[in-house]
Amino acid sequence: MKTKNTKRAANLLAIPLSLALMLTGCGGEPSTQEPGAAKESESSSAAESSTPSEAAEGVVNKTNPEGLPIAAEPITLTVGVSASSSSFQGEWASLDWIKQIQEASGITLDFRVYNSNEDKNLMFTSRDYPDISFNVGSDKQILDAAMGGDIYALDELIDSYAPTWKAYLEKDDYARKVVTMSDGHIYSLPIVRDEPSNGGLRDQWLIQKTWLDELNLQVPTTTDEFYEVLKAFKENAGTGSIPQDVIPYYTYGILNNVGGALDIINSYGVRVANERYMVTVDDSGKVEFNYANEAIKEPLAFIRKLFEEGLIPGECLTDDWDTYITKTRSTPAVVGSYHSYQNPDATNTSIVAMGPLDSGNGSQPMIRSQTNHVQRNHFTIYKNCEHPEAAMRLAELIADPDWSIQAMYGMFGDTYLTKNEDGSVMMLPYEADAQGKDSAPMNRVPFLLAKEMFDTFTYAEGSAQAQRDNAIKDQYSKYTIPTENLYPNVMFSTEQVDRLAELSTDIGDYVLTTYSTWMLNGGMDAGWDAYIEQLNKLGLEEYISILQEALDAFNAN
Predict the structure, then answer these.
(1) CATH of range 204-354; options 3.40.50.720, 3.40.50.300, 3.40.47.10, 3.40.190.10
(2) Picking from 153-157, 378-382, 418-422, 430-434, which range would have the lowest pLDDT averaged per residue?
(3) Per-position b or e across 154-169, b if 16+ CB within 10 A of its CB
(4) How far is the CA of 187 from the CAs of 176, 227, 291, 425, 443, in angstroms?
(5) 366's torsion region: left (phi>0), alpha (psi -120 to 50) or beta?
(6) The whole model's pTM is what?
(7) Could you state, in order of their start, the residue ranges of all structural domains in the chain?
(8) Do domains 42-197+373-458 and 204-354 have the same CATH topology?
(9) 110-145 pLDDT, tens digit each
(10) What's the mean pLDDT when you consider all of the chain?
């Protein structure tokens, strides 16, 4: 049980922190050289010595400063990438998008695939770098390598060869802050997917409409109604299409950012969002540790009642992700209600979105949105790259709206997307399991999809993304937690990362273990004071102060 709880605790902390802690967890060193002020100076000088301050009128280092092709004569760039992570993602070199961007740019891309975090760690510790990489490296790895002189500072390259990226970063202050490292330089470009149907919501709260219809029940709008519906599902097991082994409500743990029961807590007006570091930000800009807020006891008591009456199975606290997907996607259905990014029934007939629910306590119910529209470290140029100008122009080409939208949703034509004469783009209907297999790298390359791109983008009718877009517009938008109350994708110093690594594991594991015990066995009211006392012993105050310091620096940037 300890092992499972430890893994769950890791899930409480969002992806950016887990990536930043990668080397610490493996016990490796980020570089054979210690980073420091001297190395920072050397890194900047090295980049400046080979980076023109402005584009020359003629060919520069085999690179055309403008137009296509990018390469004035054949150029090959080795590209470090992660292995495909799902059935939707085809092999890199076989993707139509890759083939066409090579043809347009005149640059041959030779992919070096890293199959695991260990492979990526080895790349940094051995200093055996490709020319460029797409989404390889944590903040700590990138910064340490930059301080060691292994990575180009991109500031002047952006000024000279990437006008689209330059304009975007000047216009979007949040994006600029996200990509600027603690020494004031940009060492990697981000991926930007400012798509309202993506970041505008974390999970939809789904319920089996077919079962409600069979029982002559309405979609619940309050926590009391939700409780009664779950009881009806259990009491009518084996009736109609409700299976004998029905699971009324199933969650992926309680506090996990994906699939967890966080939006029950938000329904009570208690703001929680495990997007990053188990914290949110109050209206005055102060970091709040969500799970030490005494107001959370009311929604936790409701969740405890669901466990106690068998409306949530106890095994959801230890089931892994594959089990969660299997149970919630089973055919015929066995789960009555659950949380998911997409509704598997895009027709909105058998499964519908609901919530957030009115708890009756007078507080405005909320549901989670996301701040994942800008994620850094998706395009890095390493010191051994002989053609940094061409590499930067490749990043600029990818940022073109046409290339970016095709990277995410497939190529223009008669299969994935159609571009109309007025410049608008329409997604075409296709089988769900075909998305990207032979066409698009999806969100694995540094594309730039600004929000205005989606003003003229139409989803395929009946597609899962269209259903999600409609659910956000029609049901969720007025309830989502404001972006300013979500902890942003800040940059930490190496020292902060190391200390957070020490604090976060103990704090996250303790919160998870304690909450799981309360859900299964009760005892929350009697144990609350001791719980807070132990959090403080584990360094909660220091943990919050580090997050606050980084947030203040981010806002002052």
Answers:
(1) 3.40.190.10
(2) 430-434
(3) bbbbbbbbbebbeebb
(4) 12, 51, 35, 32, 20
(5) beta
(6) 0.84
(7) 2-11+486-556, 42-197+373-458, 204-354
(8) yes
(9) 999 999 999 999 999 999 999 999 999 999 899 999
(10) 88
What is the phi/psi pair of residue 455, to 5°? -70, -25
State the pLDDT confidence band at 18, using cuts at 50, 70 and 90: very low
d(CA 123, CA 125): 6
Mean pLDDT of 199-204: 94
User: Is domain 42-197+373-458 in CATH 3.40.50.300, yes or no?
Assistant: no
pLDDT over threshold 70, residue 23 = no
- The sign one gets for the Cα dihedral 401, 93, 81, 417 is positive
* Structure tokens, 456: 């003229």
Name the packing angle between helices 223-235 and 297-308 (round to 10°).
Answer: 10
Q: Measuring CA to CA, which residue among 464, 198, 471 is closest to residue 354?
A: 471
Closest of 184, 133, 185 to residue 155, by C-alpha: 185
Nearest to 123 by CA among 26, 18, 34: 26
Q: Are strands 335-340 and 247-249 parallel, antiparallel or unpaired?
A: parallel
Single-letter amino acid, residue 260: G
pLDDT category of residue 275 using cuts at 50, 70 and 90: confident
Residue 434 has pLDDT above 70, yes or no: no
How many Cα atoms are found within 13 Å in the side-chain-facing hemisphere of 279? Answer: 25
Q: What share of the chain is helix, strand, coil (3-state, %, to 5)?
A: 45, 15, 40
Percentage of the chain surpassing pLDDT 90?
Answer: 78
Given a contact cutoff of 8 angstroms between Cβ atoms, the answer to whether 196 and 468 are in contact is no
Q: How many Cα atoms sit within 13 Å of 544 on the Cβ side?
A: 18
> Which range, of 248-252, 332-336, 473-477, averages the lowest pLDDT?
473-477
Could you please report the per-residue DSSP string of 91-134? Answer: -GGG-HHHHHHHHHHTEEEEEEEE-SHHHHHHHHHHT---SEES
Beta bridge pairs of residue 220: none
